[in-house]
């Protein structure tokens, strides 16, 4: 069960696209009554519940809240039910928050019992259903200190059609937040209305996946055609820490 805290643009878009894959999703906003927003009405896989239920019943939790709200929830102990699980932090702090300890790092410190992965903060909400741009799948960088959590997060991203790229430990979260800031600046400069992303060019994508998602061989994505990439088979995922060996082909 995937839990999403925040049911605004990011949380709702994520929940809808997970539901399209047949995943069951628990989602919450601030209200405790569990009413279903109009945009989620036609997705029986999505269950609107109070936030504590999302925290208690999710196997993997996604934070799609304003940064300050996520920090408040963490500081108030509302995300702590004593069970360490993976949390995907999509937040981008306001640029005034800084001092070298930005969102991902700070949340990881506030949530020591969780395995925090910073990811999806570079993906505009509208792109969650369109993971391919100009014929190329969009790259989603992720950062975290826990290899098993990065693999879980990578599987989620693959399911959504993105290419996950491991950028290292949670200390790299500020770089992802700066990248998001840069993408937002490009968006605004060229009025792209959230239709942008980047596709990393490397000799072998499997070499930069979290340790290690072995990518199945796949044909090039046809230009202009939306294509969901198959999630990696569980057998192909190794949780060996450290840099992944290149899979033999
Ligand atoms: N929008 C994007 O394209 C995008 C892309 C990448 C990352 N992000 C990041 O995703 C996060 C959410 O952005 P957004 O655009 O989705 O914002 P949004 O549309 O304003 O939605 C924010 C959601 O957070 C909920 N919320 C606020 N405080 C809460 C609390 N204490 N407990 C539970 N829920 C709470 C709100 O609840 P109510 O429904 O009750 O008001 C609302 O559903 C931000 O950190 C943003 O930086 C956004």
UniProtKB/TrEMBL annotation:
Molecular function GO terms recorded: oxidoreductase activity
The keyword DNA damage is annotated on this UniProt entry: no
Top-rank taxon: Bacteria
This protein's record includes keyword Oxidoreductase: yes
InterPro entries: NAD(P)-bd_dom_sf, P5C_Rdtase_cat_N, STEAP_metalloreductase
Positions of the Pyrroline-5-carboxylate reductase catalytic N-terminal domain: 2-93
Keywords: Oxidoreductase
Span list, region Disordered: 216-249
Any one Pfam family match given in the protein's UniProt record, by short name: F420_oxidored
Protein name, per record: Pyrroline-5-carboxylate reductase catalytic N-terminal domain-containing protein
Organism (species): Micromonospora sediminimaris
């Amino acid at each position: 069960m995937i839990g999403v805290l925040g049911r605004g643009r990011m949380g709702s878009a994520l929940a809808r696209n997970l539901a399209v894959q047949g995943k069951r999703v628990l989602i919450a906003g601030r209200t405790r009554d569990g009413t279903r927003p109009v945009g989620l009405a036609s997705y029986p896989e999505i269950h609107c519940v109070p936030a504590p239920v999302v925290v208690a019943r999710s196997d993997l939790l996604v934070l799609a809240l304003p940064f300050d709200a996520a920090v408040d929830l963490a500081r108030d102990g509302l995300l702590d039910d004593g069970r360490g699980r993976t949390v995907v932090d999509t937040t981008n702090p306001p640029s005034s928050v800084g001092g070298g300890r930005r969102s991902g790092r700070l949340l990881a410190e506030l949530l020591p019992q969780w395995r925090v992965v910073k990811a999806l903060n570079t993906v505009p909400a509208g792109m969650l259903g369109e993971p391919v741009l100009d014929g190329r799948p969009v790259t989603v960088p992720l950062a975290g200190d826990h290899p098993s959590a990065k693999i879980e997060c990578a599987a989620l991203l693959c399911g959504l059609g993105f290419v996950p790229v491991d950028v290292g430990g949670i200390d790299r979260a500020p770089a992802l937040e700066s990248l998001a800031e840069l993408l937002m600046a490009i968006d605004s400069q060229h009025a792209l209305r959230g239709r942008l992303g980047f596709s990393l060019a490397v000799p072998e994508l499997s070499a930069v996946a979290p340790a290690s998602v072995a990518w199945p061989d796949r044909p090039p994505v046809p230009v202009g055609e939306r294509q969901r990439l198959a999630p990696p088979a569980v057998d192909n995922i190794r949780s060996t820490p450290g840099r992944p060996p290149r899979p033999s082909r």
